[in-house]
Specification:
Length: 221
């Protein structure tokens, strides 16, 4: 299936470069471009992409607010957002995840890694640049806000809490299965049930819930 991508960045040359890169992938196509957050929201509603590659710093409406509007729009329930930032210390990344983004990458990511990130997020997985993740989580814990999901870990079974803790540490379904002695399909089923119970859009929100609730803390083994 072809992944339909909307590109949102206020720099024309950057958008052009991303468009060429996405177009070079056989399983992707660019279905729209936007130069501001407001344009990104409008374009998302018009073309209904599978994924929006969203710059954070844009005029008119920044990428965080644009992400929040897209995530809150029930007609765009299947649209996922991959946030790009120039600096891996950008303090707005956590707010972007809270707003509904499914992951983030820094702009100096290699082209092949960006394409892989698009595939990962479009498939429903969370994706966080590994380098700054710990720092961002620590910043998140210093500035708590209401949970993004409708439920809390207390509604989960013991096994589901184990799975959630591993999701929060960045393990994929195969790695979770190996750690807990499960089949990959069973691990995937657990993750899906956890998202349903917590009202989470994707694994990125599960990560936030796990840290916000204190189930997992930065630096824990």
């Amino acid at each position: 299936m072809t992944i339909r991508v909307l590109l949102a960045d206020d720099q024309t040359l950057v958008r052009a470069a991303f468009a060429m890169l996405v177009a070079s992938a056989r399983d992707m196509e660019v279905v729209g471009e936007a130069g501001s957050g407001r344009e990104a929201v409008g374009a998302a509603r018009e073309v209904r992409p599978d994924l929006v590659v969203m710059d954070i710093r844009m005029p008119d409406l920044d990428g965080i607010e644009a992400t929040r509007l897209i995530a809150a729009d029930e007609t765009l329930a299947g649209v996922r957002v991959l946030v790009l930032t120039t600096y891996d210390t950008d303090e707005n990344i956590v707010e972007a995840l809270r707003a509904g983004a499914s992951g983030f990458l820094v702009k100096d990511t290699r082209p092949a890694e960006l394409l892989d990130a698009i595939r990962t997020v479009a498939a429903g997985e969370a994706l966080l640049s590994p380098g700054p993740t710990a720092r961002l989580i620590e910043r998140f814990l210093r500035s708590p806000s209401p949970a993004v999901a409708t439920g809390g870990p207390e509604c989960l079974s013991d096994r589901e809490r184990e799975v959630l803790a591993l999701v929060a540490r960045g393990l994929n379904n195969t790695e979770i299965a190996e750690a807990l002695g499960l089949s990959p399909l069973t691990a995937k089923t657990h993750v899906s049930r956890i998202m349903g119970k917590l009202g989470a859009r994707d694994r990125a929100q599960l990560v936030i819930v796990a840290y916000e609730s204190g189930m997992v803390t930065p630096g824990a083994g």
